[in-house]
Structures are given as C-alpha cells and as structure tokens.
Amino acid sequence: MLQLQPTVTFIIPIRNNKDFLMEEINTVFEFSEIYPDFCELILAVDGEQDGIVKLAWLAIKLKKANHPHVRTKIIRYASEVDMNTLIETSLKSALGQKIVIATDNPKMNLSQTCNPDFLQREILTVQYLLNAKKLEELLSKTPVA
Question: Does residue 1 form part of some domain?
Fold first, then answer.
C-alpha cells in the first residue's frame, strides 16, 4: 500500500534585503528531489523590491525546467507591509499540510498571524532554508494532525 507523505509549503517572506534568498530557493527544489510528495514555494515580497523579485523569478524559472512538480507563487505588495502581513497572506495561499516559514526571526510569535483555519496545519519556523537533508529530517520528526 502506498503511503502518502504530507504536502509541504515553504514560505519565504522578503522585507528589505533577504540574505541567502537564491540558496533558499535552490534548497526547496533540492528538497523536492528527495521528498516523494507535493512541494510548494511561496515568496511574499513587500515594497520596492523589483531587483530581488526579478532575480528570484529567474532562479525559479530555471529550476522549474527540471522540477515542474513544484508549485511556485510570488505575492507582491506595492507598498511596505509588516512581516505578519506577508506571512498571513502566504498562509492563505498555502496548500501544504506542513508549512515551513523561513524568517529572520525563527522564534517569532505567530499567534496573532494565524487564524483558526491554519490550526489544522503544522507550522514550523526556521532561520534559513539552506540544507535539504536537514529539512527532510525536521519534517519527518513532526507529526501531522
């Protein structure tokens, strides 16, 4: 009998400059090679980040050529918004049962961001998505309700 793994969404909110963004995008696609089920990448961008968005879009486009099974989405705000707004908007678009949020502050309090709709999904916060094997270990240790 085939056992399905929980679907996984990676959310990368981008405010101002984002350290390691290209590496994080690469890691999500590398993770999708070793993870047997659906993966999704959502980038949420605020303000005037045209350069970062163009660079991220190009990296995603190049990676999707060999990974068409990874769903990607870029959410852009025209003005500056706070981190919670970026995360909340991304969560509303996320399809994954497990959600990994890469923030500059992995200990941030998401209680005000998450409404009851998200309580059925497991949400993990990490500082950087830089190691696909570590992500696989982290996700395999956490149960889904």
Answer: no
User: Six-digit token pair at 95?
Assistant: 């399809």
Stated pTM of the model: 0.86
Range of the domain at 121: 9-140
Q: CA quadruple 128, 129, 134, 139: dihedral positive or negative?
A: positive
Confidence label for 114 from pLDDT (cuts 50, 70 and 90): low
Element of type H or E holding 106 = none
Q: Residue for token digits 């980038």?
A: 43
Residues 6 or more apart from 143 whose CB is under 8 A from it? Answer: 122
Query: If you average pLDDT over every residue of the chain, what do you get?
Result: 83
Rounded distance, CA 28 to CA 37, Å?
13
What is the tens place of the pLDDT at every residue in 123-132?
888 888 888 8
CATH number of the domain enclosing 103? 3.40.50
60-90 CB burial, b ≥16 within 10 A, e <16: beebeeebeebbbbebeeeeebebebbbbbb
CA distances in angstroms from 99 to 16, 40, 42, 47, 132, listed in the order given: 23, 9, 10, 24, 15
Q: Does any domain span residue 2?
A: no
